[in-house]
Amino acid sequence: MSHFPVTSSILSKTHLNNLLVEQYNLPQDSQTSLLKAGVNHTYLVKSGDANLVFRLYSLDWRTLTDINEEIRLLDFLNDSSITVSHAVKDAKGDYIQQLEAPEGLRYGVMFTYVEGEKLHNSPEELHYKIGALMGQMHVITQNLKIDRVTYTPKVLLHDPLEALKQYLQPGNELDFMQSAQKHLLQEIENADTTNIRTGVVHLDIWFDNIAVSKEGAISIFDFDFCGNGWLCLDVAYYVLQLHSLERDQAVCDSKVKNFLEGYESVTPLSAEEKRLLPHLGVALYFFYLGVQINRFDNWSNTFFNEAYVKRFVTVLVKRYYDMYLLTETTPN
Known about the structure:
Elements: H1 13-23, E1 31-37, E2 40-47, E3 50-57, H2 64-79, E4 87-88, E5 96-101, E6 104-112, H3 124-141, H4 153-164, H5 172-189, E7 198-201, E8 210-212, E9 218-220, E10 227-230, H6 232-245, H7 249-264, H8 271-294, H9 296-299, H10 306-323
Antiparallel strand pairs: 1-2, 2-3, 3-6, 4-6, 5-6, 7-10, 8-9
Helix pairs in contact: 3-7, 4-5, 4-8, 5-8, 5-10, 6-7, 6-8, 8-10
């Protein structure tokens, strides 16, 4: 065996830069640097006076169909005047690069770079504008369908809990997650779907995937989790993140109010969609905890253990669940 097999690798930025210069016909003095390594590896490409972003997908994370559908969605949104980071073709007119990494074939896509800052602590008026932008996007993606994942109860709740059992021994935390799952599944099953809009969702809109320019223009990027589902999933996730980031309850409530008002200045939320927001928020906690578990090798971390999972369940999931008194209607 000449090389020991690996499950995840970080490619040489020097050699990747050489490849990108050749494939995209970039200036020879272009520079590529790693911004973030996770399920995807994100590189900043400085090319003359312009910046680009190259996303390198982890092994078996997305199929060619998944990636092509994301690219198609981004082109559609960009053509519809929604400011997003969209894919860039190489010199041959192709969007997707195929790289033979040590672990196997990995795909890569170059994206436009959106100017602006990620604002961890944003003023209330900005949340109104973000809500309006999400509303505009949903008007465009309502009733649209792409050939990617559909966010069903199985994807959001069933599969993550099965994965979670690898890290949680029987006890209070697992008992809570099983009880919460049962309640959430019942709420989703009993939902009045005639008053719930469906279409294509981003599923990861929060401050880390939003850029705000000095002039106040807002851009959305990283549609890696885009798929089909209830549009209010995006709303629920943003509200969830506000609760996670803003610990002052009065300030948090005001920001949530501004965000929802901004959204409804463009398109209304039905009473049923509003009712379901906290339930769907908790369901998304389940989903993303499942992602962390199932893609453990990509994070290369030492903190992901039973103690971490217990804190995640208690400090984040259960706190948000109890905040809306969902326990009062949890079935026995």
